[in-house]
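Please, structure for the following, as tokens.
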Amino acid sequence: MKQFTFPLTAVLAALILAGCASSVPPRQVQVDTPAAYREAAKLDGAWQLAHPADQTDRGAWWTAFNDPALSDLIVKATQSSPTLDLALSRVKQARAAAGLADADRAFQLSTGIGPTRQATATTSSTQWRAQFNVSYEVDLFGRLSGASRAAALDVQAQEAAYRSVLLALQADVAQQYFAIRSLDSELDVLRQTVTLREEAQRLAQHRYDFGDTSELDLAQARTELSVTQSEQESVQRSRDQRDHALAILMGKAPAQFTLPPQPLQYVAVNVPAGLPSELLERRPDIAQAQRQLAAASERVGVAKAAFFPSLVLTGTGGYASDSLSNLFNWSSRSWLLGPLIGTALTMPLLDGGRNKANLASADAGYEGLIANYRQQVLIGFQDVEDNLSALRTLDRQIGFQDSAVKSAALAAQLADTRYRNGSTSYLEVIDAQRSSLSVQRSRSQSIGQRAAASVGLIRALGGGWGNIDAGGNAPLASVK
């Protein structure tokens, strides 16, 4: 049995139209970038502009802080974070969706066997078929290739999102770590102050017992001890909460993890800020926005292609027989080119406005992603400027606080000596010790903020810089 239902002219038309493709809007969006960061001019030579390349491996940027405990935490968090696993699953889903889009462009082959029952007013019969079915849609106007490119760009966007989550995780671990260490420094100062307050209370009690002072001094000494102990508990509570948050970043329950206490030392890490225009290449969130914008551009083209004809080539070959016992005889072979029902070349005429609505939706999505891309770029510049400003001002602030700590310690020592010699009241001692405690705590907080701002700048720039060992990263190339 031979049937030809597919005209040759349709094949020729397919060959002629195969080169046609619907137009898509441009994928590049021009963004007016500044020639330099505003805050970079105020760094007094402590910074210099770098020229990082997009292909440069950012590597283990946290090793610049030269803190083995921090490096160990970040590597472990990278290996066990549920947030990172979730981002990785989305990459795998996007890759699977891209595979489905590519499959629509390939030849489709299927096989099957089964009976067909047919009857007239006088007779009935059963025909058995065992056949291979082949179909292929000719991509006349680029609908299938556009969908495939959009899906591939979605994969790249999800990979950029994964790197953004990875960078955020690493930065969050580092910032929580430095925040805890800063609180450890405050607790160290408060513990020393509590010891001094206890000694002052004993001295006030001794002098009161011998009638050298009034009960007012003793009451003030007790008050200052209680107030300092209360502040110590408050800082300890903040420390515990930060420790719990760090445990979650590590992928552990708070009961399974705690960071041993250790006061924070001054962190002096200078990060080359780079050129503003290169920020567009360094930050993974901006790269994600770029890929999403390009994918939306492709989908506009796909929506336009839906207005044009589609051509599906089909074929069937195998065996057909009225008797199952004779189904696989050579004389029972049959083949068919073209669809059994319908047409190969179809053109939408009336669809109730479906294609028009799809195109309007694609256009709106594209416009929204243009705005999103521009917004991400502006946020990137803000993040860099904020952290540059923080580092500049904190460096000067810590310098002033160093002087204040020395002066306050000397004032407290002199006041204590004067009180012991009976030359002044206990109020002078209290004021001097309060000032000393305040500036020491402020300095510890500023050092922690300086470390956090260093991490924030690295995060704002899209990762590390230079040729740093890539240990601790989770490359996506291995995830297939």
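The first strand starts at residue 2 and ends at 4. Residues 25 and 297 are 6 Å apart (CA to CA).
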